[in-house]
Request: fold
Amino acid sequence: MAGYSGTKDEYAKRLRRIEGQVRGIARMVDEDTYCIDVLTQISAVTKALQAVGIGLVEDHLGHCVVDAARSSEEEGQAKVAEAAEAIARLVRS
Reply:
C-alpha cells in the first residue's frame, strides 16, 4: 500500500489541474502570448508540482519510512536513505 493511498484522490485532482495548466501554457505559446505571461504560468505550474512532491515526501516519511523503521533498524535506515535521495532529486529539479 502506497503512503499516499489515503489522499490519492486529492493528488489526482491536483495533477489534473496541473495538466490543464500545462495545456493552457501550450495554448498561450500557440497564440504568441507575451513571454512574461507564459513564464508566470510556468512558475505557477512548477510551484504546484513542487507542492505535490512535498506532499508525497511527507506521506512517504509518515507511512513507508515509519513502517520500515518499526519493522527493523536496517529497513528503516534503507528507507531513510531512499527518501533522502528522492528529496535531493526534488530539490535539484
About this structure: Residues 3 and 60 are 5 Å apart (CA to CA). Helices lie at 8-30, 35-71, 73-92. The chain has a mean pLDDT of 93.
